Amino acid sequence: MITGNNFYLNEFNTLIEVINNINDSQLQVCFIVDKNTNLIGSITDGDIRRGLINGMSMGNLASEIMQKNPVYITNDKSNEYAQQLMLSRKINQLPVVNDSGKLIGLFIKDELSTYTQSENFILIMAGGFGKRMMPLTENLPKPMLQVGGKPILEHIILNAKSQGFKNFLISVHYLSDLIIEYFGDGSKFDVSIEYLQENEPLGTAGCLSLIDFKIKTPLIITNGDLLTDISYRHLLDFHNTNNSDATMAIKKYELQNPYGVVNTDGIDIKSFEEKPIQISYVNAGIYAINPTTIKFLKPHTFCNMPDFFMNLKKEEHKTIAYPIHETWADLGRPNDLSDANKIKKKQ
Description:
Elements: E1 8-10, H1 15-25, E2 29-33, E3 39-44, H2 45-53, H3 62-65, E4 67-68, E5 73-74, H4 79-89, E6 93-97, E7 103-108, E8 118-126, E9 146-147, E10 150-151, H5 152-162, E11 165-172, H6 176-183, E12 192-197, H7 203-206, E13 219-223, E14 226-228, H8 232-241, E15 246-256, E16 260-265, E17 268-274, E18 277-289, H9 305-314, E19 319-324, E20 328-330, H10 334-346
Parallel strand pairs: 1-2, 5-6, 8-11, 8-13, 11-12, 15-19
Antiparallel strand pairs: 2-3, 3-4, 6-7, 9-10, 13-18, 14-20, 15-18, 16-17
């Protein structure tokens, strides 16, 4: 059992403070207490993402999103009982309270400081021409452009490796020899890398049809031009917990109208809005899919991910969104690359 105060907050803390707590503790959950440190609720990583997509903001209070009556154990119970309860309820963290309900500790299923190794494959799509990055990509594939002295592709691999992932697939097409020469079989990065060679561009989903061996576990897929600190493990947990067939990471995008808006009904003025903000969600270019869905792709046929998701939906497969609040940057244009390098220099 661990003790301390790094795994709980009070009901008046904000959502951004809960997110920071979960990120710092790496527990995927933050427990909520009242002013007397009595356990009153819990907020998981999944609760946060569902709250965001339902319109909550970073300023909402923990009390507005928390799940009440979390599973807990009293301090007179044995470690063996705690382990059995976690197994039966399929939970990885179990709060411990005293006889008055005060939160005094936490049982955890796994070690906090290290990730167990995952057998899931991560597919990185690196076959595009990078036309918007010209002339930088005239002699270099976009995923090989450097940020902080390393190719974007290397940042993606090292981030995933730090989370316990070791099996990588990279789809390649444009100037593929430069990628293969640099990364090889992955041994110099202590990972395993195989390549899907696109003889012609197949889109962001079509390359999946080139996988010629059986994959047994959900597959993580990411664009090769992203910089993000997303937890692929959290994405997988969300995907599995919701019994999804295909999960798409989405990012909140806010666009502020620079003018005051007049709402009318015909020629009658109804109301005014001063510089309203339009909120939408964009495809973040990161996915989790079940391997059984690959059969719905035609071999060697162009297909992009949005079309793939819609086809799965038509076939009545479960497709869901995974809202991300983590740092995320799509390096699509030269200015994006310049900004990313400036940020790296400051770190």
